[in-house]
Structures are given as C-alpha cells and as structure tokens.
Amino acid sequence: MGFHNNPHTFHIPVMGLGYTIDSPVKIAHLGISSVISLVDDISMEKMREFYCKKFNLPFQPITPKAEDHRAKRITAYLNTVQEIVIHKFENLKNSLSHTEDELQKYIDMLPDMSAIKMKLNQLINTGEIKHKLSEWLKENLVAGEIDVNIMSKLDRDRFENGEKLPSIMSDAQSALRGFALSDLSSSLVLSAGMNPRLYSYLEEFEDFYPNASVELKKKVILKVSDYRSALIQGRFLAKKGIWVSEYRVESGLNCGGHAFATDGFLMGPVLEEFKMNKELLIDTVHEIYVKALAEKGKPVPEKPFLVKITAQGGVGSNTEHEFLLNYYQLDSIGWGTPFLLVPEAVTVDEQTLEVLCKAKEEDLYMSEVSPLGVIFNNVRGTGMDLMKEAQNKAGKYGFVCKKKYLALTPVFTEEGTCTASKEYLRKKIQELKLQNLSDMEYEKVLGKLTDKACLCNGLTASTLMANSLDTEMEGKAVSICPGPNLAYFSGTYSLRKMVDHIYGRTNVMERTDRPNLFVKELGMYIEYLGGKIEETLKPISDKQKKHFDTFQENLNKGVEYYKDLFQKCKAQLEDSTSKNNLMQDLENMKLELLKLKAKML
Fold first, then answer.
1. Helix (H, G, I), strand (E, B) or coil at 2
2. Domain range for 470
3. 221 assigned to some structural domain
4. What is the DSSP letter of 62?
5. Which helix (H) or strand (E) covers residue 163, if one does?
6. Per the count of CB atoms within 10 A, which of 316, 349, 438, 551 is most buried?
7. How many CB atoms lie under 10 A from the CB of residue 338?
8. pLDDT digit string, tens, across residues 163-186
9. CA-to-CA distance for 71 and 177, rounded, in angstroms?
10. Between 227-238 and 267-296, two packed helices, what is the crossing angle to 10 degrees?
11. Is 443 inside a domain boundary?
C-alpha cells in the first residue's frame, strides 16, 4: 500500500481527541493524509466496535481488565482503520471496471500540477485502452497517510491499588507502544514539547530503525514552534538512533487546540530560519544519527533520509497556501480549522457544527479552560461552556473525573488530580476561604479556578454523538477548539469544495476582510503580550521587565521582517479575495506595539 509520495500539498492535522479519530477512514483512500489523536483509548474502543459492525469485521472487546489494555486497544483500533482504508483504496483502484465515482473524485481533487493528474490526462487524451490505464492506476495511485499524534505532556503515570506501575505503563508510553506494535507504516507526530522518557522509549521498537532495505516502516514527525527546539530535539533523538522525518512548524498562537506561545517569535521569521538552515539541520542530525545506528549494529543509510519541513496555523486562502509552499520551500501545509466544517472529513455533531458556522471574530478567543494550564483556543456557546456556567452559577463547581487523562497535578496524592475535577476544586476553594481575601479578590481567584472545563469528555462527546454512540460516560457537553481562522468560513462544505478552495479552483470565503495570516498572528501576539503586562503586579520587577522587553524586541524584529517580505513579494501575497492593505496593517501593528511600550513605563 503506497503511503510514501503524498499526492497532495496539504494535510489535516490532529484536532481535539475525537474530531479526526476516524478521518483516515473517510479520506485516506482519496489520497488525503490526516492525524489520529492517541489520547483516548476508551473512545477508540467504541469507534472500533462501530466500524467493525459497519464493515462486517470481527470484533472482540478489549476490557479494562485485560493486561496492557490501553496499548492493545490502540493497536486494535489502528489496525482496524488500516484494514478499512486498504479495502476502500483497493476498491477505488479497481473501480474502472464498475463504478468510477470515487476514482473520479480522487483524480479531480488532486492539485492541477500533480504528476499523477498530468499523466492520467495524457493517458486519457491519447485514448489509451482501459486495461493499460487500469494497470497504471494500480501502480501509481497512493493513499493518504494514517498518522497518529501523542501530546508529550499527557504522560500520566498509572496506579493499581495505590501502587505506581512501571513507567512503560504511563499514558504516553502505552500510546507509543500501541502505535509501534500496529501494522501501520506511517508517522508518529510528537507535540507539546520534549518528554525525555517518552523519546527514549522509541528505542525499544524495531519499526523506528532502518530495516534490511534501509527503509523506515514508522517515522517520527516533530511539531515545533521554532528552529532551535527542532535542532535540540532532532539531535536528542538522533543520539538514540531515531530519525526525524518531518519538522512540522506550527504558529504559537494562530492555531486551533492548545496554543504554546513563543516569546514573540513569529511564523514568517521562524520559517525563514528553517529555509536558511535546512541543509545544516539535516547534516548535523545525520552525522549523529549514523554514529548511533552503527553503535547499535543497525543498517546505516548512505545519505540522509528525506526530511520534510511543513507548516500549519491560520492558513485560509490559496494565495497563502501557495506562498508558504513556494517562498519557504515547504513540503505540505496543514489545514485544520476549516475542515471542522467538512463533515466528509472530520466528525462533529450537528449542534456544535451550527455553533461553528455562526462564529464570528468576537466568539473566538484564547481561553484558560484547559486543566493543563496552557492557553486553549475556544469558541463561545459550546455545550461544555454553557454547562460549566450553569454549574458555577448554582455553586456546583467542577466535574466528575472519569477518564483522568489530564489528571496531572500531584497536589493531594502522588496520583495526579485534574484541576477541573470536583475533588480538586472542593479542596482549593476550602483553602481560598481561609485566605481572608476581600470580596473582589476572592471572586477573581474563584473565577480563575472554576473556569476549567472537562476536556477529556468534552473533546470526544461530539464525535460519539455524531455516530449515535453511547455517551453515558462522556455526557453530551461538547468542547471544541477552532483557531480564529474559523470566523471567515461560514457554513458547511463538501470535501471537494474545500479542496478546490485550497488549490484556488474556487473560493468558499464570502468575506473580503480576512487579515493575512502573518498579520493576524502578529495581532494575536500583541494582544497576548498586552494581557500579560496588564495582569502583572505593578511595579514590574526587573526580571519581568527584561522578559517583556525581549518579547517586544522579537515582535519588532518580526514587523521589520514582514515589511521587507511584503515589499519584496507584493505580487505573490496580494489576495484577490481580500481587500486588505498589508503595509497599512503593519503600520497599525507598529502603533499598537508602541502603546504597549508606554504601558510598561
């Protein structure tokens, strides 16, 4: 099954815990790559049963009593997804003889300059006989990748009868084992920073090393927000004999889900650094890698394996898509948030879909609802937020913690607690009452504490409801985390329509006031820094002042970089669908930065 030459120049990144959990089943046979989150094995087990019934595959439940049940459930689910994708893909390749709908869809959606599409048109135009065309299709069509994501931070240790289990039973290591032992030949996306024990565990699995034909069955993709962290992590893994096949650069703030803000390093300058240093990065890492493989007695590649540099976060027009690919010489662009509005690709329940379709700029905000204490992109009006507000109003704070994936705060016992749980909040509020705060201070701290939402349930309920599956454990309150880009897409779209939008064959955006993605991110960073300065106790300490100064300096450098870029690439950046004046937007941002400077004095 050809999973190697991606026929498309975009991919669908991981979204939530459930939104892309079955995306490969829907779109991989059409050549489109997507990413499954490996956090929630409980939902995976439900989805496996659902798909086994749908495709008449045998199903044996894996209960929590089974030894190593988390890893086994993940392996079983991924194998089921792969089996279905192979089945759908084989049908598509053999469809010349009977139905041609899916095949036509596959071909129509390819980029116009794609080698497959050009060759196909040539074969058809020269009146090649069906037999020859059929053979060619079987050899040349490729399916999309079934990639998986592990959020390195979500690595809770497991306990049994109060006893801590060995570290390989932790959440992230079990998930890694689940993927490593699956039949998939695809990539593991590691996100949310470095986790040394998880990275070291990769060494235990043969599939991550070159095989006898010096090929990698399973690859590693690192999601990073700057060049320095890519180099540090790439070298760390290379020392263990693990190659990083792709560095996936994500905007620190202009993305969906959890947002990991940088110290003012903006996407344009970061991508420029990757462009300038790509060869250096590959050579440096390759040298360390080859040495490590030789020491381990593994097959050694003569020249470096392929390394892709890709980007995602806030891309919304064909102009931006093409510009990123061509100017920064990238291999693929991640399109996340817009696909939440494409039911053929991503699974969202109808009520939540309605909230997404209606969302405007003011409805999309950076929230503090995540129990991880990391900014979380949110949209007003979700079921989870409405439920939380009603509970808080009634003085019933927190949620019953059932799945415990985010129970990472070891405050009361060695076993972690979730900061959105009833138990945690009960104890915290008791402590708060003893602090003799003024009413205003008390309300402020209470508001912050009780703002947390149950994401384990909220980020999977929607997908289960959309497939009419049991949500007794999860409830029906939905959390969803689109990026701010959502405001410019209003309505649901067919897969074909969205892909045509990406490739500039159509435009699905009715609004003409959407800011350029670089300008949008800069604006978000200025707002973010302003918020941080606001909430800092005055007078500002020297240490904090230094931090804010560095942050601001990085933003100013970013502005200067964009001034040059926008002048140099005016023609490539001018968007026929947008009325924005890029240079004017930048001038406005410079004024905002000056205002921030004044705030700090």
1. coil
2. 349-510
3. no
4. -
5. strand 163-164
6. 316
7. 24
8. 899 999 999 999 999 999 999 999
9. 6
10. 10
11. yes
